[in-house]
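Below is how a single chain appears once it has passed through the pipeline. First comes the sequence as given, then the structure the pipeline wrote out for it. We keep one example in the README because the format questions we get most often are answered faster by looking than by reading.
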Amino acid sequence: MIQKEYIILLPNEKVRTYWFVTLIILLINCFVFSSILIQEEVSIKHISTMGTMISYLSLIFFLVKHFTKKLTSFSPEISFIILSICWLLLGKILFAASILCFAVIGFYTYKQFKIIFSPEKILYPSFPKKTYLWSEVNNVMLKDNVLTIDLKNNKLIQAVVEKGSSDKIDEADFNKFCLEWLKSS
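Resulting structure:
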Protein backbone atom coordinates (compact mmCIF):
# COMPACT_ATOMS: atom_id res chain seq x y z
CA MET A 1 0.00 0.00 0.00
CA ILE A 2 1.37 3.39 -0.99
CA GLN A 3 1.39 6.14 1.60
CA LYS A 4 -0.46 9.42 1.09
CA GLU A 5 2.46 11.49 2.33
CA TYR A 6 6.13 11.10 3.21
CA ILE A 7 8.02 13.22 5.72
CA ILE A 8 11.79 13.13 5.50
CA LEU A 9 13.87 14.72 8.23
CA LEU A 10 17.18 16.40 7.49
CA PRO A 11 19.90 16.75 10.14
CA ASN A 12 20.26 20.23 11.63
CA GLU A 13 23.96 21.01 11.32
CA LYS A 14 23.70 24.43 12.99
CA VAL A 15 22.65 23.26 16.45
CA ARG A 16 26.18 22.69 17.81
CA THR A 17 27.43 26.06 16.60
CA TYR A 18 24.38 27.83 18.00
CA TRP A 19 24.87 26.04 21.35
CA PHE A 20 28.46 27.28 21.61
CA VAL A 21 27.57 30.85 20.62
CA THR A 22 24.67 30.85 23.12
CA LEU A 23 27.09 29.79 25.86
CA ILE A 24 29.47 32.63 24.97
CA ILE A 25 26.67 35.22 24.91
CA LEU A 26 25.37 34.04 28.29
CA LEU A 27 28.88 34.26 29.76
CA ILE A 28 29.35 37.77 28.37
CA ASN A 29 26.00 38.84 29.84
CA CYS A 30 26.96 37.38 33.22
CA PHE A 31 30.28 39.22 33.22
CA VAL A 32 28.98 42.59 31.97
CA PHE A 33 25.89 42.69 34.20
CA SER A 34 28.05 41.73 37.21
CA SER A 35 30.47 44.54 36.33
CA ILE A 36 27.65 47.04 36.03
CA LEU A 37 26.21 45.87 39.36
CA ILE A 38 29.54 46.41 41.11
CA GLN A 39 30.52 49.72 39.46
CA GLU A 40 27.38 51.69 38.70
CA GLU A 41 25.31 54.06 40.75
CA VAL A 42 22.33 53.16 42.90
CA SER A 43 19.71 54.36 40.37
CA ILE A 44 20.29 51.41 38.01
CA LYS A 45 21.26 48.78 40.59
CA HIS A 46 17.85 47.10 40.48
CA ILE A 47 18.05 46.67 36.68
CA SER A 48 21.62 45.40 36.77
CA THR A 49 20.72 43.07 39.68
CA MET A 50 17.85 41.63 37.67
CA GLY A 51 20.08 41.27 34.57
CA THR A 52 22.79 39.57 36.63
CA MET A 53 20.36 37.12 38.22
CA ILE A 54 18.70 36.28 34.89
CA SER A 55 22.10 35.83 33.21
CA TYR A 56 23.45 33.47 35.86
CA LEU A 57 20.22 31.48 36.18
CA SER A 58 20.00 31.17 32.40
CA LEU A 59 23.59 29.98 32.22
CA ILE A 60 22.99 27.37 34.94
CA PHE A 61 19.73 26.14 33.36
CA PHE A 62 21.35 26.09 29.92
CA LEU A 63 24.24 23.92 31.13
CA VAL A 64 21.97 21.62 33.16
CA LYS A 65 19.71 21.17 30.14
CA HIS A 66 22.65 20.32 27.89
CA PHE A 67 24.56 17.96 30.17
CA THR A 68 21.73 16.20 32.02
CA LYS A 69 18.92 16.40 29.44
CA LYS A 70 16.68 17.78 32.20
CA LEU A 71 14.88 21.12 32.10
CA THR A 72 13.91 20.41 28.49
CA SER A 73 11.31 23.17 28.53
CA PHE A 74 13.95 25.82 29.28
CA SER A 75 14.57 28.10 26.32
CA PRO A 76 17.52 30.51 26.45
CA GLU A 77 15.79 32.59 23.79
CA ILE A 78 13.19 33.72 26.35
CA SER A 79 16.02 34.75 28.67
CA PHE A 80 17.61 36.68 25.83
CA ILE A 81 14.39 38.60 25.25
CA ILE A 82 14.24 39.52 28.95
CA LEU A 83 17.94 40.45 28.94
CA SER A 84 17.42 42.65 25.89
CA ILE A 85 14.71 44.51 27.83
CA CYS A 86 17.18 44.98 30.70
CA TRP A 87 19.76 46.34 28.27
CA LEU A 88 17.15 48.66 26.79
CA LEU A 89 16.26 49.97 30.27
CA LEU A 90 19.97 50.60 30.87
CA GLY A 91 20.08 52.64 27.65
CA LYS A 92 22.30 50.16 25.77
CA ILE A 93 20.24 49.99 22.59
CA LEU A 94 22.89 48.22 20.50
CA PHE A 95 23.27 45.43 23.09
CA ALA A 96 19.50 45.12 23.36
CA ALA A 97 19.04 44.90 19.58
CA SER A 98 21.88 42.38 19.19
CA ILE A 99 20.58 40.05 21.87
CA LEU A 100 17.01 40.35 20.61
CA CYS A 101 18.15 39.43 17.08
CA PHE A 102 20.05 36.45 18.47
CA ALA A 103 16.93 35.33 20.34
CA VAL A 104 14.85 35.46 17.16
CA ILE A 105 17.50 33.50 15.25
CA GLY A 106 17.50 30.94 18.07
CA PHE A 107 13.83 30.17 17.60
CA TYR A 108 14.58 29.15 14.00
CA THR A 109 17.85 27.35 14.72
CA TYR A 110 16.37 24.52 16.74
CA LYS A 111 13.64 23.91 14.21
CA GLN A 112 13.56 20.45 12.72
CA PHE A 113 14.01 20.41 8.94
CA LYS A 114 11.22 18.36 7.33
CA ILE A 115 10.68 17.81 3.64
CA ILE A 116 7.06 16.86 3.06
CA PHE A 117 6.14 14.93 -0.06
CA SER A 118 2.41 14.91 -0.72
CA PRO A 119 0.40 14.08 -3.86
CA GLU A 120 0.03 17.80 -4.60
CA LYS A 121 3.50 19.19 -3.88
CA ILE A 122 6.84 19.05 -2.14
CA LEU A 123 7.38 21.39 0.82
CA TYR A 124 11.05 22.18 1.31
CA PRO A 125 12.20 23.62 4.68
CA SER A 126 14.09 26.71 3.58
CA PHE A 127 13.41 30.19 4.95
CA PRO A 128 10.80 30.96 3.81
CA LYS A 129 9.46 27.50 2.98
CA LYS A 130 9.56 26.63 -0.68
CA THR A 131 6.81 24.75 -2.43
CA TYR A 132 7.58 22.71 -5.52
CA LEU A 133 4.74 21.34 -7.58
CA TRP A 134 5.33 17.95 -9.15
CA SER A 135 5.16 19.63 -12.56
CA GLU A 136 8.33 21.59 -11.63
CA VAL A 137 10.29 18.43 -10.83
CA ASN A 138 12.20 16.15 -13.20
CA ASN A 139 13.06 13.42 -10.72
CA VAL A 140 13.17 12.54 -7.02
CA MET A 141 15.23 9.72 -5.61
CA LEU A 142 16.15 8.44 -2.18
CA LYS A 143 19.17 6.14 -2.19
CA ASP A 144 21.63 5.28 0.59
CA ASN A 145 20.33 8.04 2.91
CA VAL A 146 20.78 10.72 0.25
CA LEU A 147 17.75 12.51 -1.11
CA THR A 148 18.04 14.03 -4.59
CA ILE A 149 15.46 16.40 -6.07
CA ASP A 150 16.12 17.34 -9.69
CA LEU A 151 14.11 20.41 -10.70
CA LYS A 152 13.22 21.39 -14.26
CA ASN A 153 14.90 24.79 -13.82
CA ASN A 154 18.29 22.99 -13.72
CA LYS A 155 18.50 23.21 -9.93
CA LEU A 156 19.59 20.11 -8.08
CA ILE A 157 18.86 19.66 -4.37
CA GLN A 158 20.77 16.97 -2.54
CA ALA A 159 20.60 16.35 1.18
CA VAL A 160 21.69 13.66 3.59
CA VAL A 161 18.68 12.27 5.41
CA GLU A 162 18.67 12.04 9.21
CA LYS A 163 19.49 8.47 10.25
CA GLY A 164 16.30 7.90 12.25
CA SER A 165 14.15 9.21 9.42
CA SER A 166 15.77 7.08 6.73
CA ASP A 167 15.33 3.92 8.80
CA LYS A 168 11.56 4.45 8.87
CA ILE A 169 11.19 4.92 5.10
CA ASP A 170 11.32 2.12 2.59
CA GLU A 171 13.39 3.57 -0.26
CA ALA A 172 11.67 1.52 -2.95
CA ASP A 173 8.17 2.55 -1.80
CA PHE A 174 9.20 6.20 -1.54
CA ASN A 175 10.77 6.22 -5.01
CA LYS A 176 7.67 4.50 -6.42
CA PHE A 177 5.44 7.12 -4.74
CA CYS A 178 7.47 9.96 -6.28
CA LEU A 179 7.56 8.33 -9.71
CA GLU A 180 3.76 7.97 -9.69
CA TRP A 181 3.23 11.67 -8.95
CA LEU A 182 5.89 12.71 -11.46
CA LYS A 183 4.14 10.73 -14.19
CA SER A 184 0.69 12.09 -13.31
CA SER A 185 1.77 15.76 -13.33
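DSSP finds six helices and seven strands in the chain.

See the next section for the split statistics.
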